[in-house]
Protein: N-acetyltransferase domain-containing protein
Amino acid sequence: MATETPAFTIRSAASVEEVSALWWPLMQDLGWNRAEADCHTHYTVAQNGENWLLVIPEKSGKPEGCLLALIYPNSTGWIAFFILNASSRGQGLGRELWKEMDLTFRRAATTTIGLDGVQEQYDTYRRRGFESAGKIHILARHALKGKPTIQPLDLTGAVELQDLRDADPKELAKLDYEHTGLDRSAYWATGLLVDRMYAFGFAILSPKNDRLTGFIYVRRCENGHRFGPLYAETYAQAKQLLHKAMNNVSASQGCVAEIFGNNSEGRRAFEELGWVDEGMWYHRMWLDGRVPEEQKQGGKGVKGMYAIFDAAAG
Structure:
């Protein structure tokens, strides 16, 4: 016998504090290893909470679940943080959140919508029209407890690296777009990510014309640091960026990265520097199989995206 869905309200988040009161405890319970500061970042990009949807059962009178429906300017969208408190699961509230999300994307005329789904939800997302286009692998490098961070890297043919904060934010957004097909200017061109506390990165500029050709971004998370994205024109440059970033992190802190599986060299670059597969992956899925050209075979993402920014943003 089906459980009757309790009376509820779905609305946009009223403040980042309201979202965080629900989201951050769930991140800790689920072990998703995010940073509390991520809430403010995603909230801002979600049009200051307008597209961070909350479901509020009348009985509790407080948010019990949420869904982040990110809408990017180039008619693309991303679904993330589709989560509910344990006491509110199995009552149909998730289904109602999904319906409201669908309306949100329709109103914005969003034509390309993606998500990274865990294996347990794969069949559910397929029934909702999403098709898998690859996998995102989770790799980690655990704390070394006083041992050297990594072995020296052969720097033959190395290029000059610059601090990411010195790079043109608009160029960061452009390179990100060229690899993902998602216009995430609200993350990169605004400085929202680069200017965060406990975040850093390095960039590569072409010596011919000072054009940005690659970069790596690292931010603090609950258990160490999250690495990504990592973009580079060559395998050697990707490895140099990763090596440099790893040497900027204390050996006593763990590291995690989400590897773009369609780039066959992504895992190799990390594994050669001591990272290991955590045995967990996401299915990268797109509604009706509409994959951005940049993430298809032959696209720049497949050639140069070694690690993604975050499964929560595409």
In short: The chain has two domains: 8-110, 136-307. The two ends are 37 Å apart (CA to CA). The chain has a mean pLDDT of 93. Residues 25 and 109 are 33 Å apart (CA to CA).
